[in-house]
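Hi support team,

I've been running sequence recovery on a batch of backbones for a student project. Most finish fine, but this one hangs at about 90% for roughly twenty minutes before it completes. I'm not sure whether the input is malformed or the queue is just slow. I've pasted the structure tokens below so you can try to reproduce it. Let me know if you need the job ID as well.

Thanks,
M.K.
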């Protein structure tokens, strides 16, 4: 598969973009599996900002109505479908292992209320579902702004980003919020960074890339990890900058990896399967981590969703409900 340049038509799937998603989801699974700070802390400094940044890269200005329909299809329909699937698996494994389930369906009104509120309230097998609703909200706002302020250098963007930064500092006080809406301003900061990368990334000279990589490595020693789900943003401002630098350097590394013929097809496939892995891996970790230990739980949490992905993709209904296809 040929490797495209950094800038590309959103309609064309970019090899490096899938590579970044694929390797990024491996980091997500590792961060949720291993408790060792030497593994967990560097991952938590940038793994979710990376996915917001990649989402910003793929966005373009379009009418709000059309954008809304697309995001409902690509984000909320899989969210609801995987919620039903994960619930079924969670309850089944809970009965098999006589293990508590992630939502207490013996009290259906309480469980349904928690499910509808979402965000931080979802734990266990549903622990990563906050990302989708937060991303949906942030993309709706960012897309609306992008259609009205197409020039990212417009000074009004500076005011908007400063406001988002201020709201990010308040996010923990506003949490838990429905669908993790309080985290959306922080997500918007990374969406903007991704869009800036789309438009201007080709103009960045390689010495600047090396400087960014050096700064990213250095930031690991001075910036506290982020936990966006719980609106914990580490060292004020510094951790946000570190997350952006690490995400940028990670993307540059993925662009290089995507140029290696023996790797590119596997990385692209992994990236295409990343949504399935994201939704399902916590169910496996939740039920098997204590029984099997972190290394084996990590392998199962990555491999089992990857085995299910081709089954979903082979079905037109599966693609529509679980992968956000038409």
């Amino acid at each position: 598969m040929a490797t495209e340049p950094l800038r590309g038509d959103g309609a064309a799937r970019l090899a490096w973009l899938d590579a970044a998603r694929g390797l990024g989801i491996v980091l997500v699974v590792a961060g949720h599996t291993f408790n060792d700070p030497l593994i967990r802390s560097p991952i938590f400094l940038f793994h979710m900002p990376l996915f917001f940044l990649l989402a910003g890269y793929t966005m373009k200005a379009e009418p709000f109505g059309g954008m809304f329909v697309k995001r409902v299809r690509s984000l909320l329909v899989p969210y609801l479908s995987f919620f039903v699937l994960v619930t079924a698996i969670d309850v089944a494994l809970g009965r098999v292992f006589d293990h508590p389930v992630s939502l207490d369906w013996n009290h259906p009104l309480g469980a349904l209320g928690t499910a509808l509120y979402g965000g931080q309230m979802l734990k266990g097998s549903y622990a990563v579902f906050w990302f989708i609703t937060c991303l949906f909200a942030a993309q709706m706002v960012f897309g609306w702004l992008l259609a009205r302020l197409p020039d990212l250098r417009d000074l009004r963007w500076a005011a908007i980003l400063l406001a988002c930064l201020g709201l990010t500092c308040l996010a923990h006080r506003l949490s838990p919020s429905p669908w993790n809406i309080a985290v959306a301003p922080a997500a918007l900061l990374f969406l903007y960074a991704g869009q800036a990368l789309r438009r201007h990334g080709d103009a960045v000279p390689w010495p600047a890339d090396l400087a960014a990589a050096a700064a990213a490595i250095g930031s690991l020693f001075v910036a506290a990890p982020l936990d966006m789900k719980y609106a914990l943003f580490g060292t004020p401002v510094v951790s946000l900058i570190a997350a952006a630098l690490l995400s940028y350097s990670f993307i540059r590394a993925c662009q290089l990896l995507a140029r290696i013929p023996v790797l590119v097809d596997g990385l692209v496939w992994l990236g295409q399967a990343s949504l399935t892995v994201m939704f399902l891996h916590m169910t496996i970790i939740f039920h098997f981590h204590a029984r099997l230990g972190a290394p084996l739980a990590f392998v199962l949490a990555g491999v089992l969703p990857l085995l299910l992905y081709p089954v979903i993709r082979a079905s037109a209904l599966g693609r529509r409900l679980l992968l956000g296809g038409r």
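--
Follow-up from support: It reproduced on our side and the slowdown came from queue contention, not your input. The longest helix spans residues 64-97. No action needed from you.
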